[in-house]
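FORM 7B - TANDEM STRUCTURE REPORT

SECTION 1: FIRST PROTEIN
SEQUENCE AND TOKENS:
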Amino acid sequence: MSFDEDEKEFSEKNSDNRDFNNISRRDKESDNFEDDFFKDEDFEFEDHTGEDSESEGYRVKRIKQRRRRRKVIFRTIGIMFILIVVAVGVVFGYRYIKNKYFTETEIAEEERIDIPSSLELTQDIDIVFACAGENLLEPDVNSVIFSRYYSIENKLISLCVPVKTLLDIPSIGTGLVGESVEGGMDLLSLTLERNLGIEMEVDYYILMDIYNVVNKLDGINLELDGEITVKNYDDDSTFKLEPGSNLIDGSEAVNFLKYFSGIEKEVPIGDITKQKLILDAITQKIAGESDEELSANLTLIQDFMDSNLSMEERLKIFSTFSKIGSGKSNVYPLNVDDHESPEGEIFYTVGDISGLPEIFGMEEAVPEEVTVIEETVDLTVFNGEGTPGLAAEVAELLKDQSFESGKNKYNVLEVGNANNFNYDITEIKVYSDQAYVIDAANDIKNILGAGNITVSEGEGIESDIIIILGTDYKTGETASEDSAAADGIIKINILNGEGTAKLASTVQGILEDHFNAEEETLKVVETKDAGNWNYEQTEIIVFDSSEEVNELAQQIMDRLGVGIIKYSDDNIDNVDISIILGSDYTDQ
């Protein structure tokens, strides 16, 4: 082989080795690059040119690919993190909003009240229901209902007590019964026990936040016999309820109770029994259609009730009360006398409660021993009618009144004329908040057989009571002597014992048109509601044994076409005849 041929062969081999070495070096560099995050080549200038420019373009491409992969990975991780945060927020946010603003319809199984094997109430109980607004810590009570349940007859008797009735509150003194709840439901229970004059011991109580209870139950169905327009005390508007079933919310329920609480002058105090309709509707809604629904509803509203009943006892009471038929659930208003404060607000004192034992099915009343306060009341008597000597005559009449011990009931400080003689109605103004003074005012009204009682504020006035005599009081005639039959005019009053609106005033017109057509034979002194609306038979009660009165009583019964004549000496209204209209009159 020649030298030239050897050199050529060497050159070719050397060239092959360089190519192989270059390829090997590139592969190694590539492998090392994958192991290192940054390489020297990453910092080479983009416009650099040289013998390895082709390899440099390949490396740049690989770098960009890796950067894109890293961005994709970081973005994916970020998106997943955001999705997790949003999911957690949705779950907990939904629960928060639902619990705070929406009625919970599903109760967790572990939160439900255990249902006993029997929900039948097998014992007689006395229970007080008080209905308030939204705040149970400082309750604004607008309904107080005392109920007695008789288990053998499955019978419920309820008494509605006006919340603005003055009672003797233990350890406090005279106050409104509704305000006694501020001292706790135990104090309300004790107040009723000591003031109603019947043998009773309140076993249980329930104070309800009516607004939230009704709303939590998605409203209640209020059943009405006729149309009622109720005042809305939130904005001084009114809302109308139709005959039949009315779905009402918490605000309407509270306003309904308040409207029939006795604070409205134009609403008869006997209508306070309509408050029981709200309590009945709540009871029916809580009971539901099954024991499970009853348990769920009680769980739902348990935070809006204050009671000394266990959950099992509540289950039994609401279950049992919801199944009592209308014929075995009777409701009565407490017999009260109304008064008016200088600000025009109405309040009440307890009237004749001798009939309560009969209402609650007791043979005899066994009242708690009450200490009679024998305090002499200072009086001033003014003549506002004009008859000479009228004020002096009444003053002497009242001076003769005394307690069983012989102590004088009244001390007359002053006798004189009023600022004018234009008083048609006798005014009995009370300037004391003591219960015995208010009792004295009622006693004076009964003695005079006339007058309206008002409670006034008067600093510096020495008298407890000021009497201004009007033309409704007759000269020389006391309440016990003032028989209308003596001058040929028979006095009667008419009581609505059935419940139809304006029934007593309608009958007044009928009787006056008939008997006074030619000359005045009778005078209707007063029309009002009876103690309850459960009279099935009309009663014509005669308080005068004279022939004229007895004859007129028979004529009244003939004119009405129904009724029975009775005789009584308990003439608290100072009339000759008292008519109590029953359902037999409206059913004719």
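SECTION 2: SECOND PROTEIN
SEQUENCE AND TOKENS:
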Amino acid sequence: MSEFYLTIIHRPEMVPEYIQKDAEQGKKEDLTRSDVLQESLDIFRTQQQIAHENGLRTTIQMTYASLFNAEAVAIAKEHHERFGDEIGSTFLGIQCKEFREKFKSKELAIWLFSMDDKRKIVAEVFDKFRDVFGFYPTSTGSYYMDAELVNYIKEKYPMVRAAVATCWEEGPKAYWNANNSWYTLMDGGPWNPWIPSKRNIHCIASDQTDDIGIVAIPHLSRDLMAVFDGPGSYYGTHPQNILRGMVFEGQELPYFQNIVDQYRAMQKYNRGYAYNMMFVGPGWMSKGGRWEADYALLLKSYRDGMAYYSELKQQGKLQDLTMSEFADVYRANRPYTRPECTLWRDILYGSRRQMFWYADPWMRFCLDMNQGGAMVDLRPYAAKLVRPCGVGTKANQDASYPFLVQSLYRAGYFTHYAGEGAVKSCKIGHAGEQVDLCTCRTLASFSEDGDTRIITLDPVTIEFADFSVQVQSIFRLAEGTGEVEIIRRVFASSNPEADISIDEYITACYGTTEYPEDLTGVRLSLTGAGVSESIDYAYQCREAEIENMQSAEALIPQVDTRLSIRTEALAAGYFREGFSFSPMYTLGIKKIIKAEGELRTWLKVAKAS
């Protein structure tokens, strides 16, 4: 049996956002227009037909509006009985005449309602679903579902075991790309299926007591490099997304197959398992065309995408599962401590760039090989932050999980005038010269030693005024520890007697957007043999350093996180406090070695309280 799993999700939208345009053109809004309803149903039926012609089953996620349409219900029932498609429920597509009359709201997103309204909407949607089909759904979803909402659904409807729970990296970048009009921020979660924490849907559950009770999947399988750098709505396993991003050649979409193949390659990093999903509404295949593509190309792109999945299935390289089926398979062999990881390579621009992504119950992070393996994103999952969103909460639209390091929102290695950006890297120095590994491009390979995942970077050559050395970085990820072991190995020096400094550092903050947060109350501390130093952050540029250090840490109460670095070597430890123009803090470990030697450090993210 293949361990590359595919879930195809279709939804019959009665008022798809990309077809209903009359309101935009100054005409009176009409949610019951028969021509719009019929076109939407025709496209939904076409999408289903394409999947079935290719021998693929789907999960039909019924929108609230579609539950009032006899034709949509009849199609779902027929395809459930004839093809084995699953009938689920989605909280997308809630807007319709019946919803407006009952809830008096034009709100599109269930996660943005108050919790009281969320409960009422869940009851209305699920009970209507049962009235129509005679049973409750076992799968549900939206672009995003907060933990409070999912906890309530699981309590009231325990048969639900799968949900589309977030849209990978739909944060400020998506907001910018939508002309500052996409008021939903939800980045910081896993890119692949996960078992969510009861406390926060983004976080991976630590154990059975923390298990929210469902398997979550992201909305679409995204390009883990292109989406990190740019908008997520261009780069994913959705042919019409790719057309929107103009990532096609004539009438062909080779990029689609490249993304699918990259996800297939995740078998190498995840004990033989890989996953892919496609989640499509009918609005993407409007007869009027979309994104400078006419209907013929929209249709062809969808047929070609399904044909590639079909080809893989016929070769025994893919197994199509419904959402609930996949949830059962995923849970059957899934220790809570097992991480999701992947070494992603550039498939958009044809460069050799790589990024390594890792997520477990303690943290999510990303290493960029174009920056010498620098950590360019770090999320403290160990904190399991309770951050409800929607009306009546502090977050309201901002459902993102906070970062400690995010190089695009906090400058990364480069800053324009002064100060520091958020990044985890290392500086190699000699006689007043210093080179940051962020400036050294390299490549990486992946291996395993028992339950330890190992990322080994190719050595880079650093040239000083009078000699050169080679430096190799190795990251060891021991499952279940919540730590990252980092080895900086120096060798092949042209002057074996030269002194070389290794400065392992992390510059960090916290936040969910590009705007700075208040660091007042963050505590920086150093601990050594019989000595310690600490300060409370006050934007005063203070620094401290001790010899024979044991650990350096930052306590960030705003995100209930303790970030620490330690070493077992004889080394100095330091911290630096930032200032308002550069609101960061830095923890570091420094050691002087001869031409050949190494420094081992450990980075740990823990819950503070």
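SECTION 3: OBSERVATIONS ON SECOND PROTEIN
The two ends are 45 Å apart (CA to CA).
The mean pLDDT is 94.

SECTION 4: SIGNATURE
Preparer initials: ____
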